[in-house]
Amino acid sequence: MKEENREPGFLTDDSDDQDRGSGAYALAGYDYQVDVSIWLALDLMLGSGMTQMIELEPGTEEDLKRTDR
Fold it and tell me: What SS3 state is found at 6?
């Protein structure tokens, strides 16, 4: 029996995706961007120690902004 994940942003290769609409794809993309931003922030702050502060969605409308040491 195939195990399925029914989280809102989780996409599978099943034909049921056609019934979900484009909102599921947008949510999956947003979730991916959040995950990548968090991992990048952790790597810059804890892994390499390259920065002390990271601002997500700064006033310049960029995705990320780091403050150099």
Answer: coil
Contact 37, 58 (CB under 8 A): no
Q: Are 51 and 66 in contact (CB under 8 A)?
A: yes
**pLDDT tens-place string over residues 27-41:** 898 889 888 888 888
Token pair belonging to 39: 């991992």
Amino acid at site 26: A
**Number of domains the chain is built from:** 1
The whole-model pTM stands at 0.49
> What distance in Å separates the CA atoms of residue 10 and residue 29, rounded to the nearest whole number?
10
The continuous run of DSSP H or E covering 64 comes out as strand 64-68
Average pLDDT over residues 3-18: 53
Domain residues for the domain of 24 are: 17-68
